[in-house]
Amino acid sequence: MAKKISTEEVKSKLDKNENFYLIDTLAANSFEARHIPGAKSMPYGTDFIKQFEQVINAQKDAEIITYCASNGCQLSALAANALEEAGYTNVGHYVDGLAGWQNAGHKFEGEATK
């Protein structure tokens, strides 16, 4: 089970330019509309691990944090569990996702923010 990551933890890691992968598991059009700065789009689906390994190509011990829309969205939890099952050892799940980021007053990137 991936560790739960808070809004404050994600913001702190970004502010400190820590080396980690922030993975948006929502559909690509959602990512294009708005996403957390620095995130990579990797929609969760049947070929998630295959696509992750081809596109992201992270080391198995790299820090990876997944997120989706809110704590009611299960895509990021499913993605985090799939990553752990595939042998990734430092996986976190940002439970509050986009809703938590917005509620904290943090900025987004994407077409809808322009």
From TrEMBL:
Residue stretches making up the Rhodanese domain: 16-110
Species: Candidatus Ryanbacteria bacterium CG10_big_fil_rev_8_21_14_0_10_43_42
Source domain of life: Bacteria
Pfam families in the cross-refs: Rhodanese
Protein name: Rhodanese-like domain-containing protein
